[in-house]
Each structure stands twice: as structure tokens, then as C-alpha cells.
Amino acid sequence: METTFRRTVVQKSNIPESNIFFVRELREKHFDATWHAHQEFQLFLVVEGTGTRFVGNTVKPFDKGDLTFLAPNIPHLWRTEESYFEHPSDKFCHGLVVYFDEGSWSPLMGKDEFLQIKMLFEKARYGMEIHGECATTVSTLMLELLHSHGTESIIHFFKILDLLSVCKDYHLLHDDVVDSPLKEIESNRINTVYNYAARHFKNKIALDEVAALLNMTPTSFSRYFTMKTSKSFSYFLTELRVRNACKLLSTEEAKNIDQICYESGFNTLSNFNRQFKTFIGMTPKEYRQKFLTL
């Protein structure tokens, strides 16, 4: 039975008017499975949980320690693995998120002392994936921020922003700035496709079956999906499968490459090797060896 998730597309984080920022701890069976955006900046740390992260037009696996910083209006979805949705299951997700409102910073952005933070906010409009030593330090500060109050919490908050503003260990996650709010009808459509693909990418997905989810012809769906995501559905599906293979190659040493090929939805080993090298720049064997030597 397919599960349908319905939530407001453009969400509000309910930051109290008396606060500069708001820290929220998430402990759930799974993260929110809705493709959505909101009007605040978001710094999100995965403390526990695995799955696939969709930010703008990028698709990547996530695991504990995953840290991202997003500006307002960037659509996103952390889709936990299907095993988290099964019943019974003892798996759970744990995350920390810091929200703050863009409007609160407007009077400060013209000050010299905030130049680096202003530049950080501009980078965040593309979405930032933070890694390395910077991510480790920021994660520690976020955990401390959860239990801080008053002036101490402000100090921790500005330490985090200061570290992010000088951080070199990051990747941008979207190829353009997102200024306009996400429309609900578009979000519902893309959310339907993303969740369906995340559940079924290990099997063959015909274009007509996914087009039927949106009551479209295959031709109309192909045109629509490419226009909204800047990639074809077949490219997106291959990307999803390759990212799953990356995760298995780096974490499942007991599984051979043939097993990983078929568990990721590829029909032949030759096609798997070819597509993997196209997306990652090396063969699955070379990718696995890279992690074994770390």
C-alpha cells in the first residue's frame, strides 16, 4: 500500500518573535517525506539516519554527520530508506535543525562586521553541503547550542555562522539561486514522483507508469519533469541508482559488485560500470578501493 504524505509546501518554522533563531531537535521514525521549502534559513544536521537527500536539483545519499545550510525557498527532502517506514521497525532518525529569519538580518547586512556573513548567506542561496573538519566543529557547536540559553546561546550561534563564513570544505547543491516560493501544485507533483522513485528505483520503472501518477502522457511528463528539475527522468533515475550504489560500495564490504549492481536497479553489469563511471568519474571497483584505503 502506497503512503501519501500531505503537508503545507511552504512551511513556517514558528520562530518566536522574541528570538533571533530557533533550535529544534527531531526524533522520529523517519524524516519528513514531503518535498517542501520554507521562508527561513535552515542549518540541518543528521545525527542518526540514512537515506537520500534531494536539494534543488541534486540527489545524494545521506548518513549521520550530514550537514547542510540552505537559504529560504530552496525545495528539499530527506527521504529515509524504505526500511524506516516498515512495521515493526526499531529504526529511528535523529536530527538537529537551526532556523532563523532572513528579515531579522536586513539592518545588519550593510555593516562591515557582517560582510563575511553576508557572503555566506549568498552562497547558501545555492544550498551548501558542509564536510570535513568544519562540519565536525559546527556539529559539536549545534549540539551545545541545543542546551544553551541567553547570552551563551547567542555566542554559540555566532560562532557557528563565523565558522561557516570562512569554511572551505563545502559543495554547492543547486545550480541556480532560488528566489520565488515553491508553488503547492508543483511541489505535490514532484513530491509524488520523488517518493515513488525512492521506493521503486531498485526495480524497472517504465515512463508510462510514472507519468500516470500525474495523469500525464509519457511525452508530456518528460517535458514537464525536465522543465522543473533541469534533467530528464531517466537521468534522475540513473542518478538515484548510482548514488545508492555509492553508499553500498563504501559501507557493504561483504557484498560483491555484481550484487550491488542489481540491488541498485541496474539490469547488466556492463551498463552499471558505464553509468557509474559517467556519473562518478571512476569504476565501481576503483570507487570501492578508494574507501578501503582510507
TrEMBL record:
Superkingdom: Bacteria
Keyword Transcription belongs to the record: yes
Alphabetized PROSITE patterns for the sequence: HTH_ARAC_FAMILY_1, HTH_ARAC_FAMILY_2
Swiss-Prot/TrEMBL keywords: DNA-binding, Transcription, Transcription regulation
GO molecular function: DNA-binding transcription factor activity; sequence-specific DNA binding
Domain HTH araC/xylS-type: 191-290
InterPro entries given in the database record: AraC-bd, Homeodomain-like_sf, HTH_AraC, HTH_AraC-typ_CS, RmlC-like_jellyroll, RmlC_Cupin_sf, Tscrpt_reg_AraC-type_HTH
Pfam families found in the cross-reference section: AraC_binding (PF02311), HTH_18 (PF12833)
Protein name: AraC-type DNA-binding protein
Source species: Parapedobacter indicus
Upper taxonomic lineage: Bacteria, Pseudomonadati, Bacteroidota, Sphingobacteriia, Sphingobacteriales
